[in-house]
Amino acid sequence: MKYNSTRNKNTVVTAAQAISQGISEEGGLFVPQELPKYSADELLALSKLDYKGRAKKILADFLSDFTAEEISESVDAAYAAEKFGGDNPAPISYLHNGDENMYILELWHGPTSAFKDMALQILPHLLTKSMHKVHDGKEAVILVATSGDTGKAALEGFKDVDGTKIMVFYPVDGVSPMQKRQMTTQKGNNVNVFAIKGNFDDAQTGVKKIFTNDAIKAQLADNNKLFSSANSINWGRLLPQIVYYFSAYCDLINAGKIANGEKINITVPTGNFGNILAAFYAMNMGLPVNKFICASNANNVLTDFLATGTYDRNRNFYATMSPSMDILISSNLERLLYHLTGNDDAKVAEYMKSLSETGKYTVDDSVKAKLDELFFGGSCDDKGTQATIKKTYDEEHYLCDTHTAVAVNVYEQYVEKTGDKATPAIIASTASPYKFAKNVLGSIAPEAVSDDEFATVKELSKLTGTEVPKPLAELENAEVRFTTTCAADEMKDVVLKALDI
């Protein structure tokens, strides 16, 4: 299995090169040259395995330059029961909700209570093994831009991992109080956390500029270091997310909820487009999917793109109660465009150049037709998010966070518009409600909200009879270690200073 760059398909690398490098030299993203295909019989065989077994099979089909032992060791360490509260790190909650077939795929049972753990618990193992294969002896410097969840999950995954240093940048006013506390109290000798004056897109753009700055790369090389990424631009971060869509389908077969081969809908609260792209890859590998439902908050650039074929980030940016989706530049959309254009790297490079220079681009009619066939896009503002949290709790006694609520709301929009109640739907639940306690409690009992974050957490638990995840409860007395704030154009300077270069 080899990988190409979305902006230059003459670039051909191994999986280990793609994972260790993170992003191609010219700024493109690495994509597999081909995808493994799973038949109905192979899906049935997958359903007989546990989550780890499914992960080992799927990862092995993509990581052909890794040994079976390396993959097994990585999977077993990443998805240990003590990290995810059981043998299935991605369980399903079954909601009735009238006659709609809604299945909530809970992806937040890991150590940071967000879906990013599903990939970022295994990425450090894949990355360090890749570095040994390709850049033996060099230290990996992981740069991360985060809209909230990726930062903490990456910090937790890479803390004290030999041969790595990790630096996380988050928008100073663009994450929840719990997310901020998770990052600023992070333990580990190889970690650094910085707030930036700006939004997530500013942080993401700053990281990409550092990645492609030849002078900075040369300085790192002189010091036996190499940049890499833990954002979903890194193939090693995206690949593990494919697993849980197959696993969820297998669990539904085993529970007698669907027949093998029956098509499903997949709804994903979407910001950077990585999570829903993983589902797209799963479909192209043989997962029976009817429609991808792309759910956005008030930052509805993807909703408009799917409706019109024009991606336009020239619009107001909103800081919402679902901050992990407060994004106007969805990086992983580039990978989708590469596949939908028939691997036309020149066209993708042209789109990305236009996005960089003008803030927008328009796809051609053939790509738009494919988008119409595959995707349904919808958006939900904060008012709709609150109403959905309350409705889901009142009717189902199920407590969902602000991002999952956006997905539930947009799925209901899809059902209302299409009448498609018969197709079973998996809804990706991406975070614990306790990461956004003030907004969740404010949706179901606004009078109970306190200015004190942890008093609010305790009240939410008391009112709903649900348990506060242990890693979040322990934050109340954790020491704050990181307080630095910088401007976006100072990011390169703080990186070099932190590396003592």
Shape summary = globular
Strand order in space, largest sheet? 4-5-15-10-11-14
Can you give the helix content as a percent range? Answer: 40-55%
Give the CATH topology of the domain at 76-114 and 236-436. Rossmann fold
How much is the radius of gyration in Å? 21 Å
Tell me the structural class: alpha/beta
Largest sheet: number of strands, sense, barrel closure: 6 strands, mixed
Describe this entry's structure for a reader.
The chain has 501 residues and is α/β, with parallel strands linked by helices. It has 23 helices and 16 strands. Strand 1 and strand 2 form a beta hairpin. A 6-stranded mixed beta sheet has the order 4-5-15-10-11-14, sandwiched between helices. Strands 9-6-7-8-16 form a 5-stranded parallel beta sheet, with helices on both faces. A 3-stranded antiparallel beta sheet has the order 2-1-3. It is globular and about 60 Å long. It has a domain of 240 residues: 3-Layer(aba) Sandwich (Rossmann fold), CATH 3.40.50. The relative contact order is 0.14. Helix 12 packs across helix 13 and helix 18 packs across helix 20. Helices cover 46% and strands 16% of the residues.
Architecture blueprint of SSEs:
Blueprint (H helix, E strand, L loop, with lengths): L2 E3 L2 E6 L1 H7 L8 E3 L7 H8 L3 H12 L5 H11 L2 H4 L7 E4 L6 E5 L10 H4 L2 H12 L4 E7 L3 H10 L5 E8 L5 H8 L6 E7 L2 H12 L2 H9 L2 E5 L5 H20 L9 E6 L4 H11 L4 E8 L4 H8 L1 E3 L20 H8 L4 H14 L1 E3 L2 H10 E5 L2 H15 L5 H17 L6 E5 L7 H8 L8 H12 L5 H4 L11 E3 L3 H8 L3
